[in-house]
């Protein structure tokens, strides 16, 4: 089967600093599309905040395009919604572009952050809520007919941090994590971690965040960075027992 992957995120760098290696692998296996809600103009990492919002937005847009090339995305769309203000928007401002993207791209799988927001950023949590609404609406033939024919996404995966990994950060930083037992899939991505690092480099204004994390974790960074974990949010779980090797395993029959 050739999987079609749609990634829905709030900010430039979420796709890389989150499931970057998974997306790099999926980008090699089939068509992949990225929809990013903002241009990241509220970024505060390193010198970001001093650059000025409109200039920073332009730089981060270019960084996102470069990173997306490395991760193998076939298309990238930026909605240009207000960074750090997504929760204040009318839900349809986000849901409608998501429904349109789902119906036009027809993904088997959709990736976003866990509803806990990972870094706890409110934009992340808002996007995850809107993804859930959009996936349901995209499959509903009575909803928004003008946005295209209904499409049923096979699975929605939430990129998640297991408690055991979050614990390695000790007091360095607080990540929203989930019990290890709640994780359905952990993928060994050592074969794609170099692409993830290259995409981090492309996010030049933000990469200090990852570099500092790597400094803190030392040799634990490889494990943190090359193994990515997911919780199934919507759709049928993979039919096989035990360890699951891919996010689209068993979806062949459901593919449309
Ligand atoms: Zn973010």
Describe the protein in words.
It is built from 10 helices and 7 strands. With 256 residues, the chain is of the alpha/beta class. The chain has one domain: Rossmann fold, CATH 3.40.50.10320. It has a 7-stranded mixed beta sheet with strand order 3-2-1-4-5-7-6, with helices on both faces. Helix 4 (53-71) runs antiparallel to helix 8 and helix 5 (91-105) packs across helix 6. The mean pLDDT is 94. The protein binds zinc ion. The site of zinc ion (ZN) has 5 residues, from loops.
State the gist of this model:
With 256 residues, the chain is an alpha/beta fold.
Strand content: 15-25%
Q: What is the total number of structural domains?
A: 1
One letter per element, helices H and strands E, the order comes to EHHEHHEHEHEHEHHHE
Total number of beta strands:
7
Highlighted features:
7-stranded mixed β-sheet, 256 residues, binds zinc ion, 10 helices, alpha/beta, 39% helix, Rossmann fold
Write the layout of secondary structure elements.
Blueprint: E1 5-9, H1 14-17, H2 20-29, E2 32-38, H3 48-51, H4 53-71, E3 75-81, H5 91-105, E4 109-113, H6 122-138, E5 155-160, H7 163-166, E6 185-188, H8 193-202, H9 208-217, H10 220-226, E7 227-235
Parallel strand pairs: 1-2, 1-4, 2-3, 4-5
Antiparallel strand pairs: 5-7, 6-7
Helix pairs in contact: 4-8, 5-6
The structure holds zinc ion (ZN).
